[in-house]
Design brief:
This is HNH endonuclease. With 286 residues, this protein is mainly alpha-helical. The chain has nine helices and six strands. Helices cover 44% and strands 8% of the residues. 34% of the residues are buried.
Length: 286
């Protein structure tokens, strides 16, 4: 999980992808509809700042009850995703991800846009820029369209949930039968607006612990030979120093990456540095 800059675009900019004279384009000429666009954008930002988006009403129709959720979903697909003008906007949003890395898992590459509030229940936010951010398809699907009224059961929002300077990811070393790590969201995360609770909910719902542990499993296999060679020359101290160098390197790039926490946890384990790496079961491919 990592933060993205809060969008500063004019809320009507995204509507440039609409076909002139189409139903919603005509509706936007109505001052009441334009006022509702401003209102939806403003109330979303107010609620988002306090993790209260779960209190927004679920609707079947929006914009003076003239646009159904099916029509808004069709506009999103046909005009923002599939049209040339819309695709330029779509791609610009995709490019806001750091190195095209998903802000919801900090690992896989982005391949779609995610609606924080799902289209199926919030048609008024289908084309709202502040409700759209890049994500990998796996995280997008794992979020699903379900709605939960409890604040603690909301997922991480990359525009509003601030994590800068917080070392939120930790892991527990396990030595049986083969070395492994269990990743988790630690207590360093403040629980203001239920942030810690929501991050743990997000972490579990998107199965990030299993995802990181899977990558760590391959990393264990990859470093076994190197650690055995270091140990033969310099013993446990040499292994610890080797792991510490790797940790420093990854920390500079991302203090909360699975790799950073992988090396931090291992360098702090006397059991692992003292020979536990010999129990690593190698992962090999044909």
């Amino acid at each position: 999980m990592y933060e993205l800059p809060l969008p500063t675009e004019y809320p009507f900019d995204i509507f440039s992808c609409l076909v002139p004279g189409s139903k919603f384009d005509i509706l936007l000429a109505n001052p009441e509809v334009r006022d509702s666009v401003w209102f939806f954008d403003e109330i979303y930002r107010i609620k988002g700042a306090t993790a209260s988006l779960n209190t927004l009403p679920v609707l079947k129709k929006a914009f003076l009850h003239q646009m159904s959720k099916e029509e808004m979903k069709s506009l999103y697909k046909n005009r923002l995703v599939d049209s040339k003008d819309g695709r330029d906007i779509y791609n610009a949003i995709m490019e806001t991800a750091i190195n095209r890395t998903c802000p919801l898992c900090s690992l896989r590459k982005v391949s779609t846009l995610d609606h924080y509030l799902p289209q199926a229940h919030y048609p008024q936010y289908t084309l709202l820029r502040v409700n759209l951010y890049p994500a990998c398809i796996e995280c997008n699907k794992a979020k699903t369209d379900k709605v939960n009224p409890r604040k603690a059961k909301q997922t991480y929002h990359p525009f509003f949930d601030k994590l800068k300077g917080i070392l939120w990811l930790s892991a527990e070393y396990r030595d049986t039968p083969s070395p492994a790590l269990r990743y988790y969201v630690n207590d360093q995360v403040p629980n203001t607006y239920a942030l810690r609770d929501r991050m743990r909910y997000h972490f579990n719902e998107l199965a990030l612990g299993d995802l990181y542990a899977s990558y760590a499993g391959q990393a264990f296999s990859d470093i076994k030979d190197a650690l055995q060679r270091v140990y033969r020359r310099k013993g446990a101290v040499g292994v610890e120093r080797y792991l510490a160098r790797q940790h420093r390197s990854y920390y500079k790039s991302n203090p909360n990456s699975w790799e950073t926490v992988f090396y931090e946890t291992l360098k702090n384990s006397p059991t692992f540095c003292g020979g536990g790496f010999n129990n690593i079961v190698m992962i090999t491919f044909p």
